Amino acid sequence: MAKENQHAKEATGELSVNVQGFGFVRLAEGDSLFVPPGYLAGAVTGDTVLVVIDPQSDPARPVAAVKRILARKFQNFIGCLVPMRHGHWGIRPLRHELPDLLKLSDESVARSEVPPREGNWARAELPVPQEDFPPEALPCANLLGTCGASGNVTGDLDAIVAEYNIPALYTAGEEAAAEELKPVQVRRLDCTKDTIVTIDPVDARDYDDALSVHPAKKKGQVVVGVHIADVAAYIRPGAAFDQAARERVFTSYLPGRTLPMLPKALANKQCSLQAGQERLAHSVFICFDEHTGEILSYQRKHTVIKVRQRLCYEQVQTLLDGGTFEAEEGVLELVKKLANISRLLRHRRMTQERFLPMAMPEIRVVCSEKPSRILGVQQTEDNPSHQLVEEFMLAANECIAHELQKLKLAGLYRNHLAPDQEKLQEFAEIATVMMGERVKGLTTRGTIVRFLKHAAESPLKDVLYMAFLRHLPRADYGVDNMGHFGLGKDNYCHFTSPIRRYSDLFVHQQLLSHDLRRKPYSLEKAVEVAMLCCTKEYNCDQAEFAASDRMKIRFIMEQCLEKGGMEVTGEICKITKTGCQVYMPDFGLLAFVNEEQLNRNWKFDHLKAFWRNDKDGDRLYITQKRRFLVDVADPVRGELLLAPAFAKGSSPEEPPFSPREKNARQKNKK
Q1: Which letter, b or e, does each residue of 246-258 get, where b requires 16 or more Cβ atoms within 10 Å of its Cβ?
Q2: Does a cis peptide bond (omega within 30 degrees of 0) precede residue 371?
Q3: Which residues, listed in sequence order, are joined to residue 619 by a DSSP beta bridge?
Q4: Would you say residue 662 has pLDDT above 60?
Q5: Which 3 state secondary structure label does DSSP give 550?
Q6: What DSSP character marks residue 583?
Q7: Residue 653 has pLDDT above 60, yes or no
Q8: Quick one: pLDDT at residue 151?
Q9: What letter does residue 111 receive in the DSSP assignment?
């Protein structure tokens, strides 16, 4: 870096730091500046920084040095305490965005009321320097206080809740007040005699949607009732529980801990569509063409319903597979009708709307709450029983999006923009390496859908889908209806989960205000709520990912201790000179084999991009599925390091040919 002079330009932007020590500063206009190692001046990822641009660097690839930190994105954070040399203390932040280890200032450690203890979770801050730091300065944090021990489920979940600032459970007083809430009076249709069912996971507690089937007035048509818990009848705009729900925005589902958006007195009782109990619902009666699945019309009604039977996905799937289960009168016939209609809807969406087909298994950690301990890992595949419910919820959400526009109400739409062509090209290059075949032409919805269907046959299907999702824009909330690219819908909003999502509750409130001839929220207020929902959704997602990954790693640690070691199945999805990235399909985790996990016999082949063991001929190459030994499990950072396991006496597989090698061999054969 050239010495600063009076001609050096300055710029401001957000810093992103690579694990290898260099960084990039993204400027407001979208350009980026490279910051080499040793010129970060104590800045970390997320910081807003003032940089000095080296006037002697290439204008096409400008190089800069951090001059001053203007603001910290992660000023306060949670981490695990570790002793350092010469009596100093450090902290390992829970967030991946922060460095693996930060030194704690001796002054803050001395001021701490509770002496630091190795392994304890702690609160710390990264202060914003009041003056310029030398370029080579390292970040230093201040200890604010300890939060309890790590190494157990309760402590880890407490740390994640604190890091992501997720509001605590409602108090006993708030729960008692919620039990006393009375619903607002509105004209309702009595549907208590109808055959209605809920279909949910076996461990669900809040039932906010139910289904029924009704004859249509015209031949060749059928009406499906989608009944949603009428939460807005209890939660009035601006009231205390509306404010509390808006503070949370989402129910946070962490392994072994659920932090609900609404008090349990509402979420699990008064608003929950429990079997055999009269409940208030906001229903959409959708008329479908019995032959094509096309939505012909719909009617929205406030209703009173009584669910005939509570079903779980496993029961429904058993019926769809030709079996049966013990059912109330009319329930089996209802489920069969719903299944037939849902198949029509899905086929229509597949052929007409051409949604992006990416069926990925859900792999979640099963924990008990009291006491908090990990019971195992459960994998749920996307099957017809889940699709049955999904199709009718999608249809109801689409109808309500139309309704908001028809009534000219300020609402929240669930938007998903089309991907940027540059991002799609970047993904195509990644997919080419992973699949061993040329991927190109992802320029239209049709080509993208065809590629995703083809990718379903790849051994790295899940990893490809995850990589593709990372190259798509995030779906978000907005007051303008901009369509949903992933679903292929021109009109879409969220209406079907008002117990656990504030966006849905807001839409319900707007519709109820209209029905009661009360003044709904203004467009300006809707904009404010949309921005809040987007921010809170991202934070909630990050908390759930952090908790899920760490509980999976803690479960693997427990298995290693119990068995004296553990082998896992992994699929190599990336190869570099520093090691391999491995996807573990049984756990839904990405792990790594670094150079440290490979002994001196392993050598990296730059031309063919694989690692080879010169002693026994073993190889590591992309798309390879093999066994690995768990080497290092780090639940603090949520990282897992593996070492290759190789059975004695077996011969190593040959790596597949690259696309270029395949073409050359085919030409030689001809």
Answers
A1: bebbbbbbbbbbb
A2: yes
A3: 612
A4: no
A5: helix
A6: E
A7: no
A8: 83
A9: H
Q: Cα separation of 600 and 357, whole Å?
A: 44
> Residue 670 above 50 pLDDT?
no
- Using an 8 Å Cβ cutoff, are 434 and 623 in contact? yes
What are the CA-CA distances from residue 562 to residues 367, 473, 500, 558, 565 (Å)? 18, 43, 38, 6, 8
Cα–Cα nearest to 127, from 17, 44, 15: 44
Could you tell me whether strands 140-149 and 102-104 are parallel, antiparallel, or unpaired per DSSP bridges? Answer: parallel
* Residue matched to tokens 């906010």: 208
CA distances from 148 to 164, 169, 492, 546 (A): 17, 19, 44, 18
Host H or E run for residue 427: helix 421-435
Give the integer Cα–Cα distance in Å for 157 and 254.
8
Q: List the Cα angle 405/407/408 in 5-degree steps.
A: 60
Rounded Cα distance between 574 and 579, Å, is 8
355-362, long-range: CB within 8 Å, 24+ apart, which pairs?
355/486, 355/487, 355/488, 356/448, 356/449, 356/452, 356/485, 356/486, 356/487, 356/488, 357/449, 357/452, 357/453, 357/456, 358/452, 358/465, 358/468, 358/469, 359/456, 360/462, 360/465, 360/466, 361/462, 361/588
Report d(CA 294, CA 351) in Å as an integer. Answer: 12
Picking from 475, 498, 414, 496, the residue whose alpha carbon sits closest to that of residue 245 is 498
- 109-140 tens-digit pLDDT: 999 988 899 999 999 999 998 888 788 888 99
Query: What is residue 333's three-state secondary structure?
Result: helix
Round to whole Å and give the CA distance between 260 and 454: 39
- Collapsing DSSP to helix, strand or coil, 248 comes out as helix
**Six-digit token pair at 272?**
């929950």
Predicted TM-score (pTM) of the model is 0.90
Find the helix or strand (DSSP H, E) in which 377 lies.
Answer: strand 373-380
E strands, 201-324, in order: 209-215, 221-229, 252-254, 257-259, 278-289, 295-306, 309-312
Q: Taking CA 255 as the corner, what is the angle to CA 249 and CA 261, rounded to the nearest 5 degrees?
A: 20
CA-CA distance, 534 to 471, in Å (whole number)? 18
| pLDDT value of residue 646 | 64
Q: Give the separation between CA 283 and CA 214, rounded to whole angstroms.
A: 13
